[in-house]
TrEMBL record:
<dbReference type="GO" id="GO:0000455">
    <property type="term" value="P:enzyme-directed rRNA pseudouridine synthesis"/>
</dbReference>
<comment type="function">
    <text>Responsible for synthesis of pseudouridine from uracil.</text>
</comment>
<dbReference type="InterPro" id="IPR006145">
    <property type="entry name" value="PsdUridine_synth_RsuA/RluA"/>
</dbReference>
<keyword id="KW-0413">Isomerase</keyword>
<dbReference type="GO" id="GO:0140098">
    <property type="term" value="F:catalytic activity, acting on RNA"/>
</dbReference>
<dbReference type="InterPro" id="IPR006225">
    <property type="entry name" value="PsdUridine_synth_RluC/D"/>
</dbReference>
<dbReference type="Pfam" id="PF00849">
    <property type="entry name" value="PseudoU_synth_2"/>
</dbReference>
<dbReference type="GO" id="GO:0009982">
    <property type="term" value="F:pseudouridine synthase activity"/>
</dbReference>
<comment type="similarity">
    <text>Belongs to the pseudouridine synthase RluA family.</text>
</comment>
<dbReference type="InterPro" id="IPR020103">
    <property type="entry name" value="PsdUridine_synth_cat_dom_sf"/>
</dbReference>
<protein>
    <recommendedName>
        <fullName>Pseudouridine synthase</fullName>
        <ecNumber>5.4.99.-</ecNumber>
    </recommendedName>
</protein>
<feature type="active site">
    <location>
        <position position="138"/>
    </location>
</feature>
<dbReference type="InterPro" id="IPR006224">
    <property type="entry name" value="PsdUridine_synth_RluA-like_CS"/>
</dbReference>
<dbReference type="GO" id="GO:0003723">
    <property type="term" value="F:RNA binding"/>
</dbReference>
<dbReference type="InterPro" id="IPR050188">
    <property type="entry name" value="RluA_PseudoU_synthase"/>
</dbReference>
<feature type="domain" description="Pseudouridine synthase RsuA/RluA-like">
    <location>
        <begin position="88"/>
        <end position="242"/>
    </location>
</feature>
Length: 306
């Protein structure tokens, strides 16, 4: 059992308990919510709930059970495509249903586990469960990911993603027809106030910018090309849902389940189509592209036939 007794710093005054304690203790949001749900946090003697607010200079009495970090389990993923492989990087075409790396709430296959099973040696930089991972895709999103194999590649690519020097292009089929047909969504994204697993456009969120262009319009939706300027969790899904054009099949963010069923979709229609960056070894600009997987291609054909 871990125990801490400390004061709330002025910078966290008024912050929600779950967000503030995660920042104060360096723990994941999930770990902090578990501690709060177990009654392990008191502020000046009163038990804190996750939506309660921290008060500057109040005394916190905290007790929690540390969790073991998720382990990388070498598990083969037969349909994980290897698009490019060299001494510095490996670029994969990730199928849906595979997470980027292990996490507390995920029991399925992962990219790092699949690479380990295939004998790839990746960089040791980063947290133990996400070594070599410089960016992520949602488990339900297919497409291109680059993983660092050398320590130099890890440092260079992390900096490139942070400095917005990486070209990240997605294709998304959404419900309805965005107006205007091309545009930019500039809206901050943070944790959904009513759900531990969802995100939303909230004033206290992190800066997020999404550029989109309509490629095709159908009776039942639109195919968009999306360029990400920032890389927030669920960014495209949240921004399009906020415009009332959720990704088709994305029932978590309000998509019509009957449309998904008609198209045979069991996840959101969202694919990481193109990835471009400066190669950490050669210094040359490299660009990789991925075709639509079978489920998305089939759904798109049905939309076109309509």
């Amino acid at each position: 059992m871990q125990e801490r007794f400390l004061q709330v710093p002025p910078g966290l005054d008024g912050t929600r308990a779950d967000a503030g304690l995660a920042k104060l203790l360096g723990l994941s949001r999930t770990a902090v919510v578990t501690m709060l749900d177990d009654g392990g946090a008191q502020q000046d003697g009163a038990t804190l709930g996750k939506s309660d607010r921290l008060r500057a200079d109040a005394w916190l009495d905290l007790r929690w059970q540390p969790r073991e970090a998720p382990r990388i389990v070498a598990t083969p993923v037969p349909d994980l495509g290897i698009v490019h492989d060299d001494a510095d990087i490996v670029v994969v075409d990730k199928p849906a249903g595979v997470a980027a790396h292990p996490s507390g709430g995920w029991q399925g296959p992962t990219v790092v586990g699949a690479l380990a099973a295939a004998g790839f040696q990746i960089a040791t930089s980063g947290a133990a469960e996400r070594q070599g991972v410089v960016h992520r895709l949602d488990a339900g999103t297919s497409g291109l990911m680059v993983v660092a194999k050398s320590e130099r590649a890890y440092s260079d690519l992390k900096a490139a993603f942070h400095d917005r020097e990486v070209e990240k292009v997605y294709h998304a089929a959404v419900q309805g027809h965005p107006d205007p047909l091309s545009g930019t969504i500039d809206a901050p994204i943070g944790r959904h106030p009513g759900s531990e697993w969802k995100f939303a456009v909230v004033s206290s969120g992190k800066h997020a910018i999404t550029h989109y262009e309509t490629l095709e319009a159908f009776r039942g939706g639109s195919l968009l090309e999306v360029h990400l300027e920032t890389g927030r969790t669920h960014q495209i899904r949240v921004h399009m849902a906020a415009r009332r054009h959720p990704c088709i099949g994305d029932t978590m963010y309000g998509a019509d389940p009957t449309v998904a069923a008609r198209l045979g979709l069991e996840r959101q229609w969202l694919h990481a189509k193109r990835l471009g960056f400066r190669h950490p070894g050669s210094g040359e600009q490299v660009v990789f592209e991925s075709p639509y997987p079978a489920d998305l291609a089939r759904a798109l054909e049905i939309l076109r036939e309509d």
